[in-house]
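@channel sequence for tomorrow's demo:
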Amino acid sequence: MMAKMTHGWLLGWVAWVLSCGTAPEDSGVLRRVLWSQSDVSHNNYRIPALIVTKDNTLLAFAEGREAGDAGDIDLLVRRSEDNGNSWSDQIVVWDQGTNSCGNPCPVIDERTGRIVLLMTWNLGSDAEGDIIRKQGDSTRVPYVTYSDDDGLTWSTPKSLYQKGKDPQWGWYATGPGV
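structure tokens (generated this afternoon):
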């Protein structure tokens, strides 16, 4: 019970820090920069999500972007097995070249420990407004992947288009969030 309360407090603080940009100096909050614009793998990082696995591993997800809301966007995760004191190198969950892979929404199966990650995909050449107006070359599609090894590896993403999206919808977003 104490671990869940500690993680709940931690997740609350992380959400506050992400929304405000920083924690007060005297808050006692452990500060760790997981992604920054000085990183060389992507130009910027957006749409964070954080979850605690059944084995008490923290998983922090983000989109790695080359530009703005369209184009080459990859889905990334970093892991911490020591309550956020240290973090792994980033793991690329999904990279589909110049297309957009993002909006991470992780869910933990409390019984099995499987990490299910809902996410979305669209052609990188389609702008959000065109997809909303159904004038793009494609549409926004929900996908799912999972990890059975605490976020180290991920299954091949599977489209949920047939079962998880009404054809009348234009834009579709699964996250960020939990």
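heads up for whoever presents: The radius of gyration is 17 Å.
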